[in-house]
Amino acid sequence: MVWTVEFTKRARQGAGSLPKTARQRLLALVLLMSESGPVQPSMSNYGKLKGKRDAYHCHLQKGSPTYVVVWEVRDKRIKIIEVTYVGTHEKAPY
After folding, report:
1. Domain boundaries, the chain
2. Would you state the pLDDT for residue 11?
3. Where are the beta strands (DSSP E) in the chain?
4. 3-state secondary structure of 76
5. SS3 42
6. Contact between residue 85 and residue 68 where contact means Cβ atoms under 8 Å apart
């Protein structure tokens, strides 16, 4: 069964302001998550967020600035992943 990947309003706005390369990597990540779920260890600097259950992050583009994406599992039973943040590392909510 396929996972549904949804974006919060804040994440959607952040994704729209990404540079082209980072936006392409975000699209690739979303496709991977929809096919195989929220755990994506092949992504750069992937990790589980401490203190939050079923929340993860990874880097889309290194350098200055570094762009990151944060997501969490909203419902394991019906397989929903929600992307909660897309943007620079400095403003990331972790």
Report:
1. 4-88
2. 95
3. 4-7, 47-48, 55-61, 67-75, 80-88
4. coil
5. coil
6. yes
Residue found under tokens 């990151």: 68
Just give the CATH number of 4-88: 3.30.2310.20
pLDDT per residue, tens digit, the chain (94 aa), is 799 999 999 999 999 999 999 999 999 999 999 999 999 998 888 999 988 889 999 999 888 889 999 999 999 999 999 999 999 988 888 7
Are the C-beta atoms of residues 37 and 30 closer than 8 Å to each other?
no
Look-up: residue for tokens 């967020």? 49
Amino acid at 42: S
> pTM here?
0.90
Tokens 């919060």 correspond to 8
86 vs 83: CA distance, rounded Å:
8
Contact 9, 86 (CB under 8 A): no
